[in-house]
Amino acid sequence: MMDKQYKSNEYEGKIYQEWEMSGAFKPRPAAAKASARRSRPYCIIMPPPNANDPLHLGHAMFVTVEDIFIRYQRMLGKSVLWLPGTDHAGIETQYVFEKKLKKEGKSRFDFDRKTFYQMIWDYVQKNKTTAVEQMKKLGASADWSKLKFTLDKDIVDQVLDTFIKLYKDGLIYRGLKLVNYCTGCGTAFSNLEVRHKEKKGCLYYLKYGPFTLATVRPETKFGDTAVAVHPKDKRYQQYIGKEIEAEGLLGRFKIKVIGDEYVDLKFGTGVVKVTPAHDQNDFEAGKRHNLEIKQVIGFDGRLNEKTGPYQGLKVLQAREKVVEDLKKKGLMEKIDENYLHSVGVCYRCGTTIEPLPLSQFFIKVKPLTEKVLLALKEKKVKIYGSGHDKILRHWLKNLYDWNISRQIVWGIRIPVWYPTSLNLPAGKAGLRGASSDFVVAKKSPGKDYVQETDTFDTWFSSAQWPFVTLRASGRAGRTGRSGDFERFYPTSLMETGYDILPFWVMRMLMMGLYLTGKVPFEKVYLHGLVRDEKGQKMSKSKGNVMNPVEVIEKYGADALRMALVMSTTAGQDSAVGEGKIRGMRNLTNKIWNAARYIISNKDTPSLRKGVSLDNASFYKELRQITKAITKQLDDLKPGLAAETVYSKFWHWFCDQKIEEAKEGKISQKTLLEGLKVFLKLLHPFVPFVTEAVWQQLPETKEKLLIQSQWPK
User: Fold this and answer.
1) What homologous superfamily is domain 548-707 in, according to CATH?
2) pTM of this prediction?
3) Fewest C-beta atoms under 10 Å: which of 76, 249, 290, 498?
4) Which of 391, 513, 524, 511 minimizes the C-alpha distance to 460?
5) Which homologous superfamily is 193-354 in?
6) Which residues partner with 527 through β-bridges?
């Protein structure tokens, strides 16, 4: 006899353990060729969450959506692999660890590289099961025996091989460029990782000899190596190519006047100062006019020795002092205090990004993006998500060369070696030098070489995730079965948030096509951001963040899963609040109570005098419901499928058909068969309660619902 109430916390842990012990999460053995053609393997590579971070609702969303597709495809009878992994997460993890050190009154500068790396490694190892255990609480039916970590040796070896291949193919170069540098995190970032915020600031009008020019950064004037005007601006044509003399804060100075079309005639006075070391447009202009790159802000975010009395001041402090002194010397004409402009900030810590000259390793992206654009044109990969295919094409057509160097310790070290004869500063091998005298190799070419100190951008290793994991998880010959790469690549689906389309999805397509000649996945499903029930972005400051683990403890994993996916659409944000989750817990109770009634009345005579059975129409409509949900899942519409199965179970099956059975219009046997079908249709969405009910059904052919066949 079933319990009166379904208590999720009494069932979920036990059921998950049964699933794992049964081997249900593992892909079925490779089938014979004939049947393999009829049942193609299905594979999703899990987007690897940070190994040591607890899950948030965004993680819960990807776990839910992917698990729905995985359970559905498994029930179709396919050999299904959901390959899980966790990410070392580069700067993300180092940033969190440094915050922990700060609370202890320490910093990264207190330790040598080897010690600091080991400290982070130990920290991650201690906490690395956090994300995995929480994904299991959500019901993730991944093959945990194949769990990979981005710093596993077999993964690292392949990532290094990729870099070496790119270098040999002429797609890697080392160059001095202006990079997006965060003085808080102490590393450069690619253009994609810089967030731009509209801010109200000041536009300063400075006197430069015969000119008055406008700038938002007076503190960088010590790095000016030219003054620029538009070549067609008649007001200033007489000065182009000449040198002017001006009064400055460090005394009188001479500076060249250049004519360049990048100058906006409508900005300020039409005259701008050119600071190649601290502005991207100025850097490009500097290259065109062969200007000196004069760096006056250090990598610590302070003005350096070239700035005289301002040395040691942080940027904003220096700006304030410089403005004050310019006023005193009569060199400030006016200040516009309501100037709106875009400011780049670090996506991680919020520090204002400093454009700084740095020698880095770059990937030439054009040969890679061209392959992806062709694959999209030929429909070798399909993007599901509200116009994001167009967004992807835009990024591919406008992508700059990819800076893959990061000045952090935690990550995969770049396999580049420099001869000690270069006399680079200790611990700064290759960081700021411009020499091309280096060797690319996994191991040191000799004792007279020192390794590059930079690590790879974490997205460089993540970009290779689909194929490096499959190659590592089941190599042919080693396990006695066909290799996972040969069986499952290209993978069937990549499911992730639309917010990392350019960071990750685009780069996986680039690297996959380059290394294998095939797209890494055939379909991309992009879920939206999870917002609160008012549609607001969740943040700690607003106090509207929901902890998935706490929600599961209170309402059960099924309620959270159904609330997350119900009525969602690919590429669009969705709202989730406690009210919606509570409503989905009511669904789990409805399933339990309906099953309890049907099971307890299975032997009750159905016929009543004068009432004819209507079993045929019941089965006909049930087949139509099954067909509709099947098509919705095949079309990658899990939100619509969830809505359909919820509505049909609650209103058609429970409210109508159970009542008709009570009236003797439908047989109890038919009602029981209908319950079995609905348990299968509901299982991908609410796996725990459906499994708990299934195991209490009389005479089921399959012991576990997770291993049952999808209804036809």
Assistant:
1) Isoleucyl-tRNA Synthetase; Domain 1 (1.10.730.10)
2) 0.91
3) 290
4) 511
5) Valyl/Leucyl/Isoleucyl-tRNA synthetase, editing domain (3.90.740.10)
6) 497
